[in-house]
Amino acid sequence: MRQKSEVKVLRMKSRRVLLVLLFVFGFYYLTTHMWHTGSVSALVGRIAPNLASTTANAPLGAFELTEAHAQPAYDTEEQNNIAVYKRVLPSVVNITSTAVAFDFFYGAVPQQGQGSGFVLDKQGLILTNNHVIENAQRVEVQLWDKHKYKAQIVNVDKAHDLALLKINAPNLVPVELASSSGLQVGQKVFAIGNPFGLSGTMTRGIISAIRSVRGPAGGGIEDAIQTDAAINPGNSGGPLMNSRGQVIGINTMIASNNGVDQSAGIGFAIPMNTARAVLDDIAKYGHVRRPTLAFLPLEIGPDLADQIGLPSDYGLLVQRVYPGGAAEIAGLKGGTQKAYLGNTPVMLGGDLIVAINGTEVTSMQDVSSVMNSHKAGDTVTVTVFRAKKRMEIKVTLTDAKDQQTTV
């Protein structure tokens, strides 16, 4: 029996030695043959079907990279982002404007500016900002397919910082316009344009606020759309869109940080309803019928009101009414006494406008805001002080075209 036990123990030891030898041989074969032939990658692929392993050789030696076999599925939000970009990109254009300046020796020096715009119809009408093409001798439009066309300036509205261009190009893809009424803070928006010359760039954000701001030319933009979607130089004139890719505004300016001309997370767009009104005027009359009261104002503050002896410490003093304009027709009175503010001649003694349609007027910006929400032919109620008497006068707004003032 003892002999049988010794034989059994010997067999078990032999098996262990054999298993160790098999393991060593297998490891040697794997590291010297399969590692370089990709068999390990195949093995990994069987274990994790969505992963693949590749070997990279580098000065520091070989190392393994694990990669996905296939692109993962896009989530719902990503799918919408991609769909909006693909649908709108063919409608967005890059605009290059060339102006001529003169150097110290009066030599002509071409200067170029860049911006964005978007196609309104298949006939080639394109909307952009006025400041993108202002003072340009030549305007060129590049489509998404890199084809370039010379553009004609059809009309401009400096007060609203809008410009209408036209190109002769085939197979144009117009944008889809949406009303800017009823927009909500927190609503998702997209911007596509040409920031810093990087064409076809899309950014995303939300509507941060709806507020009135002063535009690039100094005029007021009523109900401007404030957004945190990144807007930079070159985005001007491009579309601001809702989550369905419909245009709700025209990107026009940013709030710069310490004079640095780049996005600080606060950008502004002209609401589409304002642009529609401008386009309607151009279509009907050939120009923008910007309404006006047609008078020359003098802004009044508390100190000046006290010096002159006015009954209100704020308002706009009517220095002069323009012949045939709304103020003259309605019976507003201009000044009759010549005086000086420093070296500036002014006319005193006219009506003091303190409100329009019940809203206080403290500056020309306030009047501009009222004009932006009306059109020529509308009637407004103007509250004035004539001497010490408070009066309300109905004024029918006239067309600012060919008049000397825009207030």
From TrEMBL:
Q: Which GO terms describe its biological process?
A: proteolysis
Alphabetically list the UniProt keywords: Hydrolase, Protease
Q: Which SUPFAM superfamilies match?
A: PDZ domain-like, Trypsin-like serine proteases
Give GO terms: molecular function aspect only: serine-type endopeptidase activity
* Top-level taxon in the UniProt lineage: Bacteria
**Residue ranges of domain PDZ in the record:** 299-388
UniProt protein name = Peptidase S1 and S6 chymotrypsin/Hap
